[in-house]
Amino acid sequence: MIIAIPEPLKTLVTFAHPILMTLTLILALYAGYVGWQYRRIRSTEGEEKKALISKKYNLLHHNLGSVFLLLMVAGAIGGMAVTYNNNGKLFVGAHLIAGLGLTFLAALSAALAPILQQGKEWARSTHIAVNTVLVGIFVWQTLTGFEIVQRILEQMSKAS
């Protein structure tokens, strides 16, 4: 089912996904930085350790991770919905497959949180590895997304 989107909103709806996902990538990088700060607590002592603890990086990292998961799922669903609505089909290619894979990796990372809270080192290492791979793929996918945006802009300029 195609939903008729009023012309004034069509551009906004079309570009909501790339804007949202660019912001989500920035959030992922910030969450990684905060997670790294939180991890530093384990290897520091004295005043530096107290200063790191006082910044409550653990709570911030968990909250950022929750928002990240929400944005990844919303972005995946929203991107597919807009693509289908604008074109009557999905384009099954690297960008779509990577997006679905990233959504899975985000869910896997979040699913490790209860095990991380139990102090399991294997879960911590897995969490870091999953998120490192996730960010790497996400950066690549952002580049493919910019290519898609360029094609959309070219189509829009030809149509006007």
Question: Mind explaining what this structure looks like?
Answer:
With 160 residues, this protein is mainly alpha-helical. 85% of the residues lie in helices and 0% in strands. It is elongated. The protein starts with 6 loop residues before the first helix and ends with a helix. 16% of the residues are buried. The mean pLDDT is 94.
Secondary structure elements and pairings:
Elements: H1 7-40, H2 46-54, H3 57-87, H4 94-111, H5 113-117, H6 121-159
Helix pairs in contact: 1-3, 1-6, 3-4, 4-6
Q: What fraction of the residues are assigned to beta strands by DSSP?
A: under 5%
Structural class: mainly alpha
Quaternary status: single chain
The number of distinct structural domains comes to 1
Number of strands: 0
Q: What is the architecture at the second tier of CATH?
A: Up-down Bundle
Number of helical segments with 4 or more residues = 6
Task: Summarize it.
By secondary structure, the protein is an all-alpha fold.
Task: Quickly list its features.
160 residues, elongated, Four Helix Bundle (Hemerythrin (Met), subunit A), mainly alpha
